């Protein structure tokens, strides 16, 4: 994960480097399966309508998180940026790789700043509080790392009438002593008490089909739909599973085959190519909306929306929702190493037809840029209004 204690190499740097390596070595990607022509193609207004998008950057809570980061009193940056509403008027912001304070007066980070693999920021109104493991003097990840690896957070929801906060945690493990000698190993649910935010247990979930089941979670029609990503570096494919009710640890899981459901994880079909490791699938009008960074382009700045009449797709009629201004040499940082990734919606924070989309910003030279400028490694928020084209 990082070359030494004070110099992290973030997960997104690894993903980008992996993609470049696969391109350079000519590793072929598997061919995408053809979608079932009859699956999910029933007429619905969500698909029938031609949508247009108007975007307003710097939407709430971006300024609130930035101001909190500048204080250097807790969280100062991170990625993933999932959100779940909890009891007591709280929203928990869920981050994977995380920097903590302090922050220097010039907006840089000390090279000794703490860096951990997962954290929470709890929002109640305009008040924010950082939650980590360990102690204030020695903060650690919320989920203790295994002997030979660590956990990164993905999709999250509450369960058991809101008593639990369940987060899909990806286990990565080292395979050698080199900087890039590590790999994704398996999927877990990290179950927290939703009141205390203390870890209750870590529970294994299906992991045999090379799918990271951490892309998104959606409750619909008595099921929780679990959206995963088969990550081949240069190509990323969405997969869909489901479980009855809201308990991700329940059995059996069922896997979408392209024409029906199977109890065999390896029968899971590729639904859509070009999704990001983290994306969203939410109800939209009488159908569904998928929001993702466009991973058919290397280091893309494009945020896309796809539409479907079914939670299993096919997802069609892509609309460009936004272009991230930070990306690349011609971006706002004027730095070719700056990348953006993992855009998704926050459906609990929508306002009518207005989506709230977040995305992450990082650098391919993380060991220098993320210390030189604290503003880089913070989530951005965009309010996107969808309207029918005239």
Number of helices: 4
Strand portion: over 45%
What helical percentage do the residues reach? under 10%
Q: Segments where pLDDT lies below 50 for 5+ residues?
A: 1-7, 16-40
Number of strands: 27
Mean pLDDT: 91
User: Which secondary-structure class do the elements indicate?
Assistant: mainly beta
> Main beta sheet: strand number and arrangement?
6 strands, antiparallel
CA radius of gyration: 20 Å
Cα separation of the termini: 49 Å
The shape is globular
Kindly describe this structure.
With 390 residues, the chain is mainly beta. Helix content is 9%, strand content 46%. The chain contains 4 helices and 27 strands. Strands 15, 16, 17, 18, 19 and 20 form a 6-stranded antiparallel β-sheet that branches. Strands 4, 5, 6, 7 and 8 form a 5-stranded antiparallel β-sheet that branches. A hairpin with a 2-residue loop joins β21 and β22 (287-293). It is globular, with a radius of gyration of 20 Å. The relative contact order is 0.18. Residues 1-7 and 16-40 have low confidence and may be disordered.
Helix and strand arrangement:
Elements lengths: L1 E3 L2 E2 L2 H15 L19 H4 L2 E7 L4 H10 L3 E12 L3 E11 L14 E2 L2 E6 L2 E5 L1 E2 L4 E2 L8 E11 L4 E11 L7 E12 L5 E7 L6 E9 L2 E9 L4 E9 L9 E3 L4 E2 L9 E2 L6 E5 L2 E7 L8 E7 L7 E8 L14 E8 L8 E10 L2 H7 L7 E9 L2
Antiparallel strand pairs: 1-2, 3-27, 4-5, 5-6, 5-7, 7-8, 9-10, 11-12, 12-13, 13-14, 15-16, 16-17, 17-18, 17-20, 18-19, 21-22, 22-23, 23-24, 25-26, 26-27
